[in-house]
Amino acid sequence: xxxxxxDSDGDRGFYKVDGRNKESExxxxxxxxxxxxxxxxxxxxxxxxxCKAMIRRFDLNGxxxxxxxxxxxxxTT
Length: 77
Prior knowledge:
Elements: H1 2-5, E1 16-17, E2 20-21, H2 23-26, H3 32-41, H4 48-58, H5 68-76
Antiparallel strand pairs: 1-2
Helix pairs in contact: 3-4
């Protein structure tokens, strides 16, 4: 995944966005638009189509959105 390639400090970026602890902002479900927005905050620009594909791949419970736990799996893969 491209986020890993751009992760300079190895923390996968999902605990720190803009140098602050942002884990609480990640709790919840990600739709394709909110996933695109969060990835943008992490410095990874992507298309809505790519977000749809990511959700399809990592939506483990099949509800059509990424939960926080599913997002963590995606970010560590």
